[in-house]
Each structure stands twice: as C-alpha cells, then as structure tokens.
Batch of 2 targets.
Target 1
Amino acid sequence: MKHLGQHAIVIGASMGGLLAARALSEAYAVVTVLERDALPRSDIPRKGVPQGRHAHGLLARGRTVIENFFPGWTDAVVACGGVRGDIAGDVKWIGHGVTIESTPSDLVGLLASRPVLEGNVRRRLMALPNVRVIENCAVQELIADDGKSTIKGVRARISTGVEHVIAADLVVDASGRGSSSPAWLESFGFAKPEEERIEIGVGYTTRVYRRRPADLGGKLAVVIAGSGPNWRNGTILYQTEDRWIVSIGGYFGDHAPDDDQMFAAYAGSLPTSDIYDIVAHAEPLSEFVRYRYPAAALRAAGAIPWGISGGRRCPVQLQSGLRPGHDGGGAGSRTAARMPRGGR
Ligand SMILES: Cc1cc2nc3c(=O)[nH]c(=O)nc-3n(C[C@H](O)[C@H](O)[C@H](O)COP(=O)(O)OP(=O)(O)OC[C@H]3O[C@@H](n4cnc5c(N)ncnc54)[C@H](O)[C@@H]3O)c2cc1C
C-alpha cells in the first residue's frame, strides 16, 4: 500500500491511542506513540488511566475489531485470566427495572481487567516493525507552520526534563478526557471547539470479591443500568476465574459509600439483588476505589480527537444502551471530529 505520509504521531498509549496507531501503521511509514506515563511491565493499573481500576468488559464489536487488528489477541487475553462470553446469553442485563431475557447469540464479548485488555494490545502493537512507543514522554503543545494552518508536529518533554520537537505529517490526539487540544487550537487562533455538556455528577465505587463458579447462576456478568426513578446503577463482571469486580454508583452526588455495610446497603437498593448477594456474602479481595466526574461532554474539535479525547460519556449508559443524554462507544470507539469554521 502507498503510504499517506512518512510519520504519524499519536498522543497517548491507552486503548484509543494504541488502536489508532495500529490503524495508522498501514498508512504511514513510521508511527510514534508518545505516552506520559511509565508503562508497567506487568498488567497493573497506571496513573494516566485511573478508570483502569474499575469494571471493564469489551462488547462484541470492539473485540472483533481488535481481533482483526491482532489475530490471536482474544486467546492471549484469555490466557491472562480473561473469558469469552456470549453478550446476550451469559450476561444478565437490567434496564428500566426490567430484566432482558437471556438468549444465546453469536455476539462474543470479552471480560478481563482493563490493564489486561490494554497490556495485550500494547504488546502486540509494539511488536510491529514500524511502530515505536515512547514512555515517560509528555506532549506539551502542537507545533504549527508559520501560517498556523497546518500542524507540523509536537513539542514533548521526556522524564529528564529535556524537550524535543518531533515533526510529523499527522498528529492524532488520544490523550483522554484531559486533552489540551481545545486550548492548543485556540492558541493558533481557531475558535474554541464547541462542547456539549450535561452535568451528571457521576461517581463509581469499586471493589474486587472472591468468585465461585456457581455465583449468579453461572452468569459471567450482571449489568444494571440506572433509569428513573432509581438512577443508581451497578456492574459485576468476571475478572478472573476466582475474582468478581463490582462497580456501583449513581448521579448528582448519590454515590456508593466506601464502607462495607453502607456499600452493601447501596447495592441492596438496586433493582435486582444479584450484586447485593455477592457484596454482602463474598470475601472482599481489594480496598474500595472511587472514580467521579462532574459532566458528560461531547466535543467538536479541530485536530483528530480519538477515543475519549472527544468527550466523556458514562460507561454504564454506553454499555447498556440506555443513555439519557449522549451516544458513544467506550474503549476503542471513534468520536466524530469536525473542523471549526470561521473562527480565526
Ligand atoms: C468507570 C469506567 C468504566 C468503564 N468501563 C468500560 C467498559 O466496560 N468497556 C469499555 O469499552 N469502556 C469502558 N470505559 C471507557 C474506557 O475506559 C474509555 O473509553 C477508554 O479508556 C478511553 O481510552 P482513551 O485511549 O481514549 O483515553 P484514556 O484511557 O483516558 O487514555 C489517555 C492516555 O493519554 C495519556 N496522556 C494524557 N496526556 C498526555 C500527554 N500530554 N502526553 C502524552 N500522553 C498523555 C494518558 O497517560 C493515558 O495513557 C469505562 C470508563 C470508566 C470511567
């Protein structure tokens, strides 16, 4: 295939950045991924991906896309403790207080910890001959040409404090919800990208519990979406053969407490008792971890925002298909981008 250019840079080596780099590896002679974090040698959570401590699963389409990018990837995740599951047959979905009837399907999803999903993508990407991933390297700003109309590369700082300008034909921003792209574009004289924002005050509290195969009637996961009048939601997912991960939460500050009894009481307030039955009786294997953000947002930006850099959406709504405000896709999904016009 004829290359579109010599060099593409991707900012951020989380799911969005890694998958963007894989796609670009077919169209650019060299792809460089710049990541601010030190990348862990084993599959453990890291600072730049705080959501990595919370429940994650991959729906069928996402798994298929990644498997097509990296044949054998699903088997590798399973070898790390994950499990394939029939999204419709092995998962209990509850929305609007109604349990959707389980039925076998050919929709094969994947359950594993977030670090295991990401680590297996990263290792496969780094094995590609024309891709390099530079860790401990924080992008400071985009570099534009003299007319400030074309992005020519980035200025990045490595852990020693030394800064480098790295030239590129294309820069993809996959730096997540804290992306500086809007500010960088504004500094070039473009209009600040519009942001559609809905205050939701969402918060999740997560803990890992001992799993026994007979738990939950043999289901691999239960997903309870919040819907009026009870907006509390919860997810319990197979993480490894002997571990459940439970994330429960709510909106507008109605968050699950990080206290044994109050966490169980909160789980008991969900529309079904599936999560409560585990939380109240199974052995806890971790501390509580909390995650909060004030608003769901969708940005229209001027560079190419990838993954969640284009905004932030509530994952439980996304996974369940129940969404009071926004549409989107979760890990590996693409967010629409358009150039702001007339703002210079
Ligand atoms: C509680 C919770 C549960 C979720 N559950 C699911 C789920 O079950 N399934 C699912 O598909 N999705 C789920 N999601 C969504 C999923 O986690 C995100 O969509 C996905 O991680 C976004 O990936 P990303 O690469 O776009 O951004 P991020 O994961 O935010 O990664 C951004 C990366 O950029 C790096 N970075 C930031 N700034 C710079 C810089 N200046 N220079 C260099 N590097 C930088 C960061 O260190 C990080 O590595 C969940 C999210 C949350 C919050």
Note: Helices lie at 15-24, 60-69, 73-79, 114-126, 181-187, 260-268, 274-281, 315-320.
Target 2
Amino acid sequence: MIFSSLYGVDLGTDTIKLRDKTGQHFLDSKNMIAIRRGRVLAIGSDAWEMYERNPMDVEVSCPMSGGVIASATNMELVLSYTLKKFTTFAKKSSGLCLAVPTNVTPVQQRAFFNVLRDSRQTSRVRLIDKGIADAVSIGIPVQEGKGHMIVNVGADTTEISVICGGRVIIGQTLKIGGKSLDADIVTMVRRKFNLNIGMKTAETLKNNLAFMINGPRLEQKVFGIHTLSGLPKSDMIPSLAVSVSIVESVDRMIEQVRAVYGRVPPQVAGDIAEEGIFLTGGTSMILNLPIYMQKELGLPIYHITDPRNSTIRGILEIINHKELKALTRAPSLYEY
Ligand SMILES: Nc1ncnc2c1ncn2[C@@H]1O[C@H](COP(=O)(O)OP(=O)(O)OP(=O)(O)O)[C@@H](O)[C@H]1O
Ligand SMILES: [Mg+2]
C-alpha cells in the first residue's frame, strides 16, 4: 500500500472528522441519519438539524453507540455519503487510516472494516488506537519505553489509555461522555423545574454553563414542556444546578481513571506519576475539569489544546511520517 496517500478518519460518536494527508482538505460532519419508512431523508448536519424536531414517522439516530457501530447499515450509509462529499473536494486517495477504541473486539473491528470497505470499495484500511493518535498529536515519543496515560472524554465514551513502547498496554472504554452528562441535565431540569427538555437543549446548557469547582454564576433561558400542564414553558436554568447535576457522572469517570492507574505496572506508574495524565476530547472542555481531576487524583493533569481534534491531528501526523507507520495495523480479519 502507498502509505502516503491515506485519508485520516476519526469516526466519533458525535462528529466524523476527515482529513486528507495535507490537512488542508477537511470535513467535520455530525454522525447522524434521518430515516422515514426505510428512506434516507438526511445525513450529517442536516440530520442533526432535524433531531428532536422530527415528525413521528421520521427516526433520527446516531449509528454509533459506546464507541462501536450500533447499526452497520446506517453507519455505512452515513460513511459512504460523508466520504463521497469529502472526495469531491479532496484529491483521490488510496486508503484510509481510522482511529478505533483500543479494546474493540475482532468482531467489532470487522464491522468497522466492512463498513469502510463497502462504503468506499477499498480494502486499504489501517487502524490506529485512539489513545496512540491522541498521544502523537502532542508530540509524545510513543515508541520509546516510557509510560504515558491519556484520557479522552468524548461524546459517548471516555477512552483511557496507558501507552508504553508504541502500544496501548491498558485500554478501557467507558460508556460515559458528553451525552451522559446531557442526560443528567435533562433529568435535573425535569425534577427541579418540572420541565421536559431535549438532549440538544441540555447540551447547550452543559457547554455554556457547566463547571467543576469554581465557575461563574450564570443562567440560561430554555424552552420545554411543563410536566404538569403539558404546555410549552420557559425557565431560567442556573449554572450551579447544571454543574451539580453532572458531578456524579464525572466522579464515576474519575473513579475509573483511578482504577486503571491502580492496575498499571509499577515502573510505568512511576513514569505517569512524574509526567501526569493528558486529558483530551470535546467533553474535557467543561470549565475547570482538569483542575478538578488533578485534585481528585493527586496527579498533574495536562489539558491538550483543541481537544476535540486531537485524535484526527494525531492520525495526520502518523500518515505523514513513515517512521510512525508501525503504530498502525491492518484490521485483524481472521481472529474469530
Ligand atoms: N465547551 C464544551 N464544554 C463541554 N463539552 C463540550 C464543549 N464543546 C463540545 N462539547 C462536547 O464534546 C462532545 C464531542 O466531543 P468529541 O468531538 O471529542 O466527541 P466524538 O469524538 O465525536 O465522540 P467519541 O470519541 O465519544 O466517539 C459532545 O458531547 C459535546 O457536547
Ligand atoms: Mg472521539
């Protein structure tokens, strides 16, 4: 395979990020599809626009869940559409380099491979662990023997990776991410304000108001359906209520990071204690989350710049540097 002509793909639950080798051609598209009676109505951002505004007979869904493909058919439709859109303005390429969760099973790996192959008629697919791509994005010399720890808090998952010698030696994918926090906010608003709001509204509350430890006392007006009257109603939701509602999920995530750290071999644990943990992913943008994690874990936490794009930035680095090719692998199609 001509390694130099690969595209980079970060198949996120929330956003599919595509880049050509130069990084000049890029596409960020919502990982969503709208279907009415078996017919595709919209894909990507257009489907996202319809989400929670759709008529009863239109189903708007995300083909991925918990970091893996939940509906292969829908994923294929979304991906072939997105790739086609991308290749209209990017140079033709001979293959794809795709980031996957570390402990994805061979069956799930096969699902990724099949979807890519079917949607693009290519067998040239290389896989890379998400954690490795994140580490490469900030210039960590991953192939050396020192240990590193990366936590990527995305939309539907938190990927915890301990890296040593160019490999993920411990990887765990938690089903906690931005969407879990959005669900916490929906529940809180229903209980405290008797208001039914959608996940989209909850997401804006989270992104605009949520903080850990100290944050500004702000509020935001939201519209919903009053749980008692069943009529549309608006209310002002304070940042403190939003922030308190997500603490339990954030603490569960931190608890898992602590548990993974506890399983790390002593020498590697020493490296991590010295270097600290790298934090990335869109949901890491919650105000003061890195400081909160630092306090809870008693380890230095470094927040990666532009955290939503760290995985795709790492993939680009890898496809542009031959010496990093060993970090990728062909999908293991015969393991089961
Ligand atoms: N300012 C912000 N504060 C908190 N969360 C944010 C902010 N901006 C975006 N997010 C959240 O980040 C998430 C998207 O992050 P990201 O792009 O890393 O996810 P993804 O890669 O698509 O998902 P995954 O890695 O879980 O498959 C969404 O849940 C979004 O609400
Ligand atoms: Mg991601």
Note: The longest helix spans residues 239-262.
